[in-house]
Amino acid sequence: MIDLGTLGGDYSHARAINDFGQVVGTSNTIEANGPHAFLTGHNGVGMIDLSILEPVIAAGWTQLTPYSINNKGQVFGYGVLRGNYVAFLLTPSEISPIPEPSTYAMLLAGLGVLGFSLKRQTKSSLFNA
């Protein structure tokens, strides 16, 4: 058993671990403004608050809840984007402490595809009702 620590608050909750020991979950912060998504064991860095990464904030994501991490380091979960609960997939390049400019382009492209598919799914469910 390993103490993962917290993001400054008084609890953390692990959700998943991959074969390389990277763990995702949620933790509260010292401000106690709700749980924040975290990742540990990425590039030798301790606990990373995924909720405050620049690409996540720039895209407008809130209330991230990670559910799984694969052996590529990709984090899957759900969050709120423009008032809707939708799935997300963060890749290791998006999790890097200093993102490259191409990271923003890839994140925005991925979010655009997600938004398009959500919009299309919503329209098709209206016609099927």
TrEMBL record:
Domain of life: Bacteria
InterPro entries linked: HAF_rpt (IPR014262), Ice-binding_C (IPR013424)
A family per Pfam: PEP-CTERM
Segments forming domain Ice-binding protein C-terminal: 97-120
NCBIfam families hit by this protein: HAF_rpt, PEP_CTERM
Identification of the protein by name: Putative secreted protein with PEP-CTERM sorting signal
Organism per entry: Nitrosomonas oligotropha
